[in-house]
Amino acid sequence: MVMNQTCGQSAIAFLEANGVDTVFGIPGVHTLDFYRGLAQSAIRHVGVRHEQGAGFMADGYARASGKPGVCVLITGPGVVNAGTAIGQAFSDSVPMLVLSSVNARDDLGKGRGRLHEITDQQAVMAPLTAFSRTIMKPEELPRAMADAYAVFETGRPRPVHIEIPLDVLSGPGVPAEDSRGRRRRPVPDAASVASAAKLIQTAKLLVVIAGGGSVEAVDPLKAFVEKSGAILVPTVAAKGYVPDDHPQSLGSTLAQKATLALLGEADVVVAVGTELAETEHWTAALPIKGKLVRIDLDPRNMSRDYPAAVAILADAGATLKALAAAIKPRPAPDAKRLAGIRAANLAEWRPLQRKHIAVLDALRSALPDDGMVASDMTQIAYTGNCYFRCQRPRTWFHPQGFGTLGYALPAAIGAKLAAPDRAVVALAGDAGLLFTVQELATAAELRMPLAVLLWNNDALGQIAGDMVGRGIPEIAVKPRNPDFQALARAFHCHARQPTSLAELTQSLKDAFSADGPTVIEVRQDAAFLA
Ligand SMILES: Cc1ncc(C[n+]2csc(CCOP(=O)(O)OP(=O)(O)O)c2C)c(N)n1
Ligand SMILES: [Mg+2]
């Protein structure tokens, strides 16, 4: 036991020992001992304007860097405010370490009306995390940290919540240690690899669906796709893991008819690191009729929705390498057929989506290949999920499963902090931006050259369309918006409203090297998009 530092300081020392360089949060009287530790550490603390922002920033930081994003939160409202963002990270398998206070041990569960009290904070966090743990004595901290890194390193990465009661937090601490690197992901068993290889070797039409779970397996994925002659369809999370312009890739078009028709004809489908979730295809079910090989770290994905002929509970990279080694090279897929599918997918876009595409093309031309886009729940991002081409991994971040408005801006801030030399864009709709618009203050304070591309239709466009489509009168979908140009300036940001696509491209390029954030507003009814 180290008596000369508090447990709060020890928790921060643990972060430092684990290579954490940035944490996101808002201090409060409950978390002072974490800040005692932060003040003495080399860790950068990013002060945010709402804890939901801290959670999304930690998410963007994690997606950009591959390291767990970290937030430090006060008991009760701090934790609950971040809950939405933690739920998003849970849904998208993003590693995140959530450190918080909780009421003193004697008060837990008693409902005494203490400051910030929730009767059972752990129960609130449990469904949003891989686990939520209360540190009842300082000696439990090393085990909790080790268990957190075990989740990040060996399992399906997800948020972990560690809460420290006030009396423990200010009491004596423990020596910090490096909790990383002690474990490996499971490797595939030989029999399963042999069965899968047999199916793959003799397939007539082979499709690979790669999801976010293959993020650390991008080289083995590309090698496997090439050797097996498969057609690759990445999920939205997996955009750019294999460059979208690879001749065997159809891009993330699982929501498009021609791609789904092809999938329906495949006699063998390999799904790696994906839930095959409905938010990829928006239909009742994927038309998988062939034999399915599933590779995943989560046992629940071995049979969920689509039973597998062969299910391999193992690391994606190790499994793809083993499969590639076990097969003889197969011919590349029919290029003409792929060209036909790509053309059919493009022809599917309707007039509104064609406006999105004009803007997305301008964005693509302004943004370097390693540039990152954090997108929101807006129609232009839905089009982008399918249409936007990514050539590198970790360049397109969408709040895919949970589908949370307000993600884009704070996630972009987190991504930019993780990779300051890369250009970053937040792509948000008018309603989505307002959920977390106060984080413009955080970005401006950091003098961060961030482009905030605002798609403004003065509407909850998607929902308005859904209401009309179902014969429901439009209720609460046409808000009275603020003057976004003035709003941006009030937050010490630059504000632009381009009047041509060329001006839009230039505004984006300028934003990437500006002395602070730039809000670039494109109105859906702009003349240059007509
Ligand atoms: C936190 C949250 N609340 C509500 C919704 C439901 N929702 C999905 S899209 C949408 C409209 C968003 O409007 P906007 O950001 O302007 O994008 P647009 O559809 O107009 O492009 C709403 C309300 C949601 N996804 N998340
Ligand atoms: Mg809108």
Please provide a written account of the structure:
The longest helix has 16 residues, at 351-366. This protein has helices at residues 7-17, 32-40, 51-65, 77-91, 121-125, 141-154, 166-169, 190-201, 218-228, 257-265, 278-281, 316-326, 335-347, 351-366, 379-387, 408-418, 430-435, 439-445, 461-469, 484-490, 501-512; strands spanning 2-6, 22-25, 44-47, 69-73, 96-102, 131-134, 159-165, 172-173, 206-210, 231-234, 268-272, 291-296, 310-313, 372-375, 396-397, 424-429, 451-456, 494-496, 518-523. It is of the alpha/beta class and 530 residues long. α8 crosses α12 (316-326) and α10 runs antiparallel to α13. The N and C termini lie far apart (69 Å). The strands form four sheets. Strands 3-2-4-5-7-6 form a six-stranded parallel beta sheet, sandwiched between helices. Strands 15-14-16-17-19-18 form a six-stranded parallel beta sheet, with helices on both faces. α4 links the parallel β4 (69-73) and β5 (96-102).
SSE blueprint and pairings:
Blueprint: E1 2-6, H1 7-17, E2 22-25, H2 32-40, E3 44-47, H3 51-65, E4 69-73, H4 77-91, E5 96-102, H5 121-125, E6 131-134, H6 141-154, E7 159-165, H7 166-169, E8 172-173, H8 190-201, E9 206-210, H9 218-228, E10 231-234, H10 257-265, E11 268-272, H11 278-281, E12 291-296, E13 310-313, H12 316-326, H13 335-347, H14 351-366, E14 372-375, H15 379-387, E15 396-397, H16 408-418, E16 424-429, H17 430-435, H18 439-445, E17 451-456, H19 461-469, H20 484-490, E18 494-496, H21 501-512, E19 518-523
Parallel strand pairs: 2-3, 2-4, 4-5, 5-7, 6-7, 9-10, 9-11, 11-12, 12-13, 14-15, 14-16, 16-17, 17-19, 18-19
Antiparallel strand pairs: 1-8
Helix pairs in contact: 1-2, 3-4, 3-16, 8-12, 9-12, 10-13, 14-15, 14-21
The protein binds thiamine diphosphate and magnesium ion.
